[in-house]
Amino acid sequence: MDGFLVGMIFPAMHYGENIHVEGCVSSKLLFNLNQYVVPMLMAFLPACKRITITATETNSEQFNCSGVGTGFSGGVDSFCTFFDHYELEADSENRINSLIFLNVGSNGPGCTAEELIAARNKFYSRYNYLSKFPNELGLDFIPLDSNLHSFHPWGHQLTHSLTTVSAVLIMQHMYRKYYYASGGLSYLELYKYHDFLLNRDTALIDPMLLPLLSTESIDFISDGAQFTRVEKILRIVDYEPLHRYLNVCIRVRYGKSHENCSVCSKCCRTMMILNSIGKLEEFYHVFDIQKYKKKIEFLYVCQQVVLQFKDPFARNSIELAKKNDIKLPSFLISYSLVSLVNFARTCVPAVILSKIKAIINRH
Question: 106: which DSSP letter?
């Protein structure tokens, strides 16, 4: 019952309800949850209350597994983890031999029956698209559907570490090691931007949390925090499959298409970095570059100039642009335009607002 237990820890702590599992759980996991994980979540996620977890039965059995897995969503983080531990990894003990794709919240909310259906449709649409890549390599790409996100109305970002581990634990008879691709921040950034991340994203504590969710059979490893997001892109930018399968879009998760929209914050962040290193045109297969240039680029860059002092992603993007002599708008111009747009969002009809954005981007 390990997977079901971990999947319900945050909801239980949010409401202050103890958990008793009428079934068998890992002895190691149960000990770690009570001794370390519950206090850790209380410290870093203020919405969490102290609870006690018990089970009818515990077991210390170790499954004889050969699987080394990771999730593959086509994003920068998952591509970097795969590149490091498949393409560059020579040791079979550590080399990825299986990929997973999960429906635990990243494909959309599940608070209503309609949302669950939409998320499930998006899940299979994305899976069918992304499966071409592992098929090329002859690797298993295992889809796992669920309604777990129905119990997490707070959104995927806040609890993604717990929900992902929950799903993987359901398959722990297959895996002895699982790399969890980090949320894009380095160790130093996780420390430096603690206040920015607090109560917003479990990625803040992944390096500490994930090993404590391991059992006697499977080790969870937080991978990728040794790099910043910019460093990851620089690391994998010449990896050919990236040019065909890079899938970073936030709107993809809630829209009808699996394609990158080229105007959401994650698309823009990635395209700004690629533009700064002179590689954007190489990604015309996965991004609508003209749409980005015409509709959003200038305004997005202005937003990053304004946010660079508190947002680690913005800071990295601006520093990279300056390093590569990319012309940037001044802080005064950026602040004025961003303030104008924010004001217009609350006071101006959407049709007129879109025209204002178009004019700003042209000039």
Answer: T
Residues 71 and 124 in one domain: yes
Q: Are 35 and 62 in contact (CB under 8 A)?
A: no
Instruction: Supply the pLDDT for residue 316.
Output: 95
Range of the domain at 30: 2-59
Distance CA 136, CA 69 (A): 17
Taken in order 200, 231, 272, 336, the sign of the CA dihedral is positive
pTM of the model: 0.90
Residue 268: how many other CB atoms lie within 10 Å: 23
Residue 132 confidence (pLDDT):
96
Q: Tell me the torsion sign for CA atoms 61, 65, 68, 74.
A: negative
Contact (Cβ atoms closer than 8 angstroms) between residue 292 and residue 268: yes
277 and 210 within one domain: no
CA-closest candidate to residue 49, choices 7, 6, 18: 18
CA distances from 104 to 108, 110, 123, 147 (A): 9, 9, 10, 7
Please classify residue 125 by burial: count the beta carbons closer than 10 Å to its beta carbon, then call 0-12 exposed, 13-18 middle and 19+ buried: middle
- CA 83 – CA 230 distance, rounded (Å): 15
3-state secondary structure of 67: strand
Say which residue, 60 or 361, is predicted with more confidence.
Answer: 60
Whether residue 354 is contained in a domain is answered as yes
CA distance 357 to 344: 10
Residues comprising the chain, all counted: 363
Beta bridge partners of 24: 57
